[in-house]
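F.,

This is the one I mentioned.
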C-alpha cells in the first residue's frame, strides 16, 4: 500500500474540469491591451473578409445588425493565466459571414482598428467555433473590451479573440500576428498550455 499525505487530492483542474492547467478563476473582467483603445463611430465601422485572390466582402454596422445573431455562453482563458467561466455574449457566427465567401485558403490573419493582428487556421473560425461579438452580459460591448465588435474564439487563448476587429484576410500560407511575432505561441491552446513559442 502506498503512502499518501493527508489532504492530497492530485492535480486539481478546478470548476468541474473546466479550468485549463495553470489558470485561476476571476469574477471580474480584466482589461489588457497592447496600446490605446480605438474609438470607432458606428457610422464609420466596417468589417471585411478579403479572399486570397483579392475579392472583398464588406459589412457596415447596419448590415451586421440585420444578420441573425446568437447568444453563446462560453468560458474564456487569458494567456496571463486568468479564466472567466460562463461569459454571455451576443454576436454573429462567422459561419454566417462566410456563407457568401468562396475561398480555399487554410489560414486567416485578423486585423483590428488600431493595427493589432492575430492569426488562426480558417477551420478554427467555422463550424460554430467563432463569433463577431457586439454585446456582453446584456449590454453593448464596451470599448475597453473591444467594442463596438470583437472576435470571440473561446477555445484558444483570449489574445486570439481580437478586440476592435475590422477584418479578416484569407491566406494560402500562415502569417503570424502581433503577439505571435513577439514570441507567443502560434496557436494558443489553453488545454495544452501553448502560451509561448516552443510550448
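My design for it:
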Amino acid at each position: 500500500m502506498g503512502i499518501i499525505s493527508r489532504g492530497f487530492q492530485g492535480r486539481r483542474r478546478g470548476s468541474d474540469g473546466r479550468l485549463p492547467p495553470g489558470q485561476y478563476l476571476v469574477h471580474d473582467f480584466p482589461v489588457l491591451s497592447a496600446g490605446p483603445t480605438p474609438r470607432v463611430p458606428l457610422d464609420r465601422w466596417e468589417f471585411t473578409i478579403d479572399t486570397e485572390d483579392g475579392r472583398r466582402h464588406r459589412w457596415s454596422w447596419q448590415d451586421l445588425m440585420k444578420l441573425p445573431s446568437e447568444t453563446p455562453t462560453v468560458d474564456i482563458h487569458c494567456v496571463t493565466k486568468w479564466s472567466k467561466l460562463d461569459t454571455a455574449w451576443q454576436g454573429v457566427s462567422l459561419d454566417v459571414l462566410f456563407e457568401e465567401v468562396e475561398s480555399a485558403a487554410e489560414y486567416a490573419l485578423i486585423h483590428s482598428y488600431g493595427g493589432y493582428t492575430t492569426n488562426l487556421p480558417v477551420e478554427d473560425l467555422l463550424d460554430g467555433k467563432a463569433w463577431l461579438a457586439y454585446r456582453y452580459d446584456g449590454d453593448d460591448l464596451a470599448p475597453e473590451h473591444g467594442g463596438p465588435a470583437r472576435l470571440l474564439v473561446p477555445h484558444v487563448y483570449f489574445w486570439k479573440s481580437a478586440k476592435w476587429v475590422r477584418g479578416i484576410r484569407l491566406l494560402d500560407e500562415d502569417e503570424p500576428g502581433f503577439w505571435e511575432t513577439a514570441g507567443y505561441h502560434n496557436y494558443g491552446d489553453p488545454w495544452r498550455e501553448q502560451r509561448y513559442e516552443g510550448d
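Helices lie at 61-66, 94-97, 178-181.

Talk soon.
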